[in-house]
Design brief:
12% strand, extended
């Protein structure tokens, strides 16, 4: 398969196109990078994704 190359600029210019119709944008949690390489990148997560990321972080910290 040939998947299109997508970068942050493309996502920023068509942001709402990248949010699934399954979710209401105002029900999602806003996440942001620090922007250490330039402009911060904003994305959205649902509560389940946020909990999953937090669990992985905790497990990773415990195993180091």
């Amino acid at each position: 398969m040939n998947w299109p190359v997508v970068n942050k600029s493309i996502i920023r210019s068509q942001y709402d196109s990248f949010i699934s119709d399954v979710y209401e944008k105002d029900q999602l949690i806003t996440m942001s990078t620090s922007g250490s390489t330039g402009t911060p990148f904003v994305s959205y997560q649902n509560e389940g994704k946020k909990k999953s990321v937090k669990r992985r972080y905790i497990v990773n910290e415990m195993t180091e």
